[in-house]
Specification:
Layout (H helix, E strand, L loop, with lengths): L2 H25 L22 H10 L3 H15 L3 H13 L3 H14 L4 H13 L3 H14 L5 H15 L11 E6 L3 E6 L2
Antiparallel strand pairs: 1-2
Helix pairs in contact: 2-3, 3-4, 4-5, 4-6, 5-6, 6-7, 7-8
Length: 192
Amino acid sequence: MPAARVVRLIAPCTAILAIAALAAITACSPHPATGPYAPGVDYRQPDTNEIETAHRLMAAGQYELAMNAFTRAALDDGMSTEILTGLGTANLGLGRLGQAEQMLRRAVKEAPDWPEAWNNLGVLLMERGKTAEATEVFRRAYALDNGESDAIRDNLRLALAKSENSVSIDVHNQDYKLVRRGSSEYLIRTTP
C-alpha cells in the first residue's frame, strides 16, 4: 500500500477520534453547555411555596396555571382564606364570574376582617355591573384597611364615580384588567 494512501486513511480516522474524544470530555464537564432544553430538576433545593408561585402566575396573567397552583397549595395547607381569594380572583381573570363570586363570598364569610378579600369581591361586583353593592364592599375594605392601601382607595373612588355618574358611564363598554398589587391585592385598571 502506498504511503500517501495510508496517510489519507489515518487523517480521517484521527479527525473522527478527535471529535469523539472532545465530545466525551465535554460531556464530563461540571458546567455543561446550555442547549435548547430546560435544565434538570435540582432535588437539593427546598420545595417552592405554591401560594407564592400562584401569585406570580396571577401577576403574569396565567390564570389557569395560577388556579392549578392554588389547588396544589390547598392540598398542602388546606382551604385558607388566601387560597379561596386567589381561586376567586383567578376565576375572575378567566371570566368565570359565577364561580369567582362563590369563592370570594366564601372567603369574606370565613375572614370578615381581611380587607384584600373584600377588595377582590368589590372588583368582581364591578365586573358584574353591581356598582352599588361594589361601593359598599369597597367602603368596608377601606375601613378594615384603615385607608392604608392605595389600591383599595382607588377602587372605592372608581366605584363612587361610577355610581354617581351611572348615566354617563357605561361599565360594559370598558375593558378592565386585573392587576396584582402587593400580597393578594388586585386593582381594576382600564386597558389602553
